[in-house]
């Protein structure tokens, strides 16, 4: 901060010059402040800023912990008020999307010690750059919260010393309004912060108490024993704080007001305060169950609803409500058999209720999906266009988690029987999925810069940790499902099997005292190692432009995260809405490893780089990479150069065909002659040559065009019977020997084939056009499932662009 500005501010606040000297020590210590990283930096600028930031971080880490300089509370409050005003102004404005940057990937502490085993600490005893293990800070808020990268406020301890508190990843606070924050944490809220970290902020100059894990925060009710011997030096009541109720009825009506305003979490907190006063206050518990249900805190709903149902003194109306909530929570947790039972129990009291009939039918449909793996993919695809959040059951086909010692994490997926191409292996609903559209509604986008990978994450990647944290917070029994995933080389290896055995009963949720500890640093590593970043199918149709303008999408899935990578994968994944389906693209033998692509780059070097960015620290050992490495560095470099040349428009259609042939020869010379037909980079050269030949309208040129197109497909690894001789034998067919290209997703080969269909129709060869159209349909259905109808929907834009829609409709 500019010292002159500080001096002006202090004058306004009536502070003395000795206060100013204290402050100058702080504010002019700009050399100790971290380098700025801000939105709008050019890529080079950002690279340099990240490098400088890392250097600063290393230096800052070496500075021993030291007492914090005293910053007058008025200064803290005044600085904070301006941050709060910025958020309020942003809320009032109708314009623009604001981007915030935050730094991730540095070590951070999350406490695992219960509050009762910790000793009290005060600000005066705390040191900057220190984690205060074995201690807890008791404090209360003396300002309203404001939301920046984290939610932030000013707190004071019982001795009246103030400091800034920043809480990251707090449930429901990711993009919340000031109204939500004020309801959640009114001024005067009392917290116990377990093992607080006092540190220099990631950006800025004033030290902060930084809480990364929301489970380190315990909300303290007025009657808590922890407050018994505590008196607040600045008075029992914080100025401007609302009057706090301290009766069960008071908390109930507060909760009900929040509930009516759709402020589910503040409502749940209010009910929890009431339940702390009287754990048998059944109405509050029943209401909390509903608030949890609205927030997706299903474990909390279930525990509360069951307890209400088992209360012998409860009225029939409340018991029935609780039973319905229990059934809904069972359904949402994927226990469809239990859900059906509960809904049927409820139905006994309301035999004609149409909603419950619908829920029973849905429970039965989900149970059937889970048993059979039969889904209506076409319907799901259509539904995903309006709501990505699809209602389906998970399904596990002929696969299991197995040991693969040589892979990071030591596990992988193996086939439990011989598998055929296109067979459905797994259907999994996202644990969380985030599209950039979800974030844009919030008028604010957060971008995190990862110090481990030295790159800026996309907005949806930056949000994933907060989303997963919230889900675990409200569903604590899911904790081990997430923390059983691989977290990378700096963490102990995950358990050899997956999923872990989960508690039989759901765990309770209490926002005043969270049930499980969430280690945020480990969760960041887990998310980074296991997330999926491709765009769901409805938003990236073949041909045309992206439909929903989705520029980034991140999905966090559980069992799908157990698949290892191969550049020549034998399975492929696609997302319809937030549902991932994984299918075999090659025949797979029982006990063989089943793999997916983490990248579909055609060049060895680009694949290597992409895999490294996804934390694959060892070189990929698939046969394609081994063959590529055996070609030697010089050949690989030359191949890379030629491919770049091609992609940058180095071969123009106006050039003579001989230039294309020479190019092919040069590129081909980078592959050892002994290599098999799969040569992904060659596909690009064949595609370019085919495009050139499609301009020349002679029969010979057409034949050559077909030959080049077929080579483009074959070099990617597509196998269809008699593909190479189809011109003469006309026996092109999809048979049990057919397989999808192992090197790439279905999109590119489908594009190539539909182009070929278009060219055949152009010369009125309907027979071959039909044959190839059927190959395209087979390809899409094998990768995505469904039938002709789904094929037509997925390829609709491309079929239109190529004037193929009517033809496809008539022959499929
Ligand atoms: C999403 S996890 C895959 C499951 C993981 N193997 C496990 O045990 O949980 C991704 C990590 O698995 C490892 N991995 C994936 N594919 C691999 C491969 N082909 N070779 C070696 N390690 C691989 C890498 O360490 C990568 O960071």
TrEMBL record:
InterPro entries given in the database record: Gramillin-biosynth_MTr (IPR053209), SET_dom (IPR001214), SET_dom_sf (IPR046341), TPR-like_helical_dom_sf (IPR011990), TPR_rpt (IPR019734)
Q: Which Pfam families match?
A: SET (PF00856)
Q: Which domain of life is it from?
A: Eukaryota
- Domain SET span(s) in chain numbering: 397-599
- Signal peptide (residue range): none
Q: What is this protein called?
A: SET domain-containing protein
Q: Which organism is it from?
A: Fibroporia radiculosa
Q: In the record, what lineage is assigned to the organism producing the protein? A: Eukaryota, Fungi, Dikarya, Basidiomycota, Agaricomycotina
